[in-house]
Amino acid sequence: MSLVKILNVNIIDPTAAFLAPYKLEITFECIEQLKDDLEFKLIYVCSGKSSTLDQELESLFVGPVPVGINKFVLEAAAPDATKIPGDSVLDLSVIMLRCDYMSRTYTRIGYYVHSAYTDEALQANPPAAPALDKVQRSILAEKPRVTQFTINWEDPTQDEQPPAQSVEEMMAGDDDEDDAQDEDSDDDDEDEADDDADVDLDAMEAQDEAELGSD
């Protein structure tokens, strides 16, 4: 049984400027007294092909954690665009909230992020170097991909077991992906970008399961 359950993640300002900080209001329940702090990390993933391109935007230790329901806001700076290859700034990317206890991940929540110019002229003729102050990001907050991992809470240094649950959960709205899409005029473009994205959350989850199962 997991001693910590993530009850809700509210992404504050899911649509914002690319350079704006990320703000996530995280609500979780602690079932029993913990011997150590919890760690929450926000990671920017611009490519599913290599984790070397990932950027850790913020790492926050929370503790001592009282038994019961707790809430806090995790704030993180925008990714360093100079470390994002080529024109990937305007591609579909992912932000990953990783929840750890004593260096073991028990919950991971991923969100697709769509970044694009809002100016039609820049959309038609994008500059060679991205004009970051003109780029807007939209986090698909209604479509989190949640993966639960089984850990030994008494001794997390022991090997992790395969994920107890690996599902796409909708924290808000209908489970149907099409209905969960925003009703803005660019919905279809986001769906197409999802299909063609280099960053595939389903593939990342499958890879994690394979790696954990082989331990």
Question: What does the model show?
Answer:
It is a single chain. Strands 2, 4, 5, 7, 8, 9, 10 and 11 form an 8-stranded antiparallel beta sheet that branches. A 3-stranded antiparallel beta sheet has the order 1-3-6, with no helix packed on it. The protein is elongated, with a radius of gyration of 18 Å. The model is unreliable at 164-197 and 210-215 (pLDDT under 50). It has 4 helices and 11 strands; from the N terminus they run ββββββββαβββααα. With 215 residues, it is mostly beta strands. The protein is 15% helix and 39% strand.
Précis, in short:
With 215 residues, this protein is mainly beta.
The portion of residues forming beta strands comes to 35-45%
> How large is the radius of gyration?
18 Å
Secondary-structure element series:
EEEEEEEEHEEEHHH
Number of strands: 11
Largest sheet: 8 strands, antiparallel
Identify the overall geometry: elongated
Average pLDDT, all residues: 79
Spans with pLDDT under 50 lasting ≥5 residues?
Answer: 164-197, 210-215
Distance between the termini: 21 Å
Secondary structural class: mainly beta
Helical proportion?
10-25%
Quaternary structure:
single chain
Number of helices: 4
Fold topology:
Blueprint: E1 4-12, E2 15-17, E3 22-30, E4 38-45, E5 55-62, E6 68-76, E7 92-101, E8 104-117, H1 120-124, E9 135-139, E10 145-148, E11 165-168, H2 177-180, H3 187-196, H4 201-213
Antiparallel strand pairs: 1-3, 2-9, 3-6, 4-5, 4-7, 7-8, 8-9, 8-10, 10-11
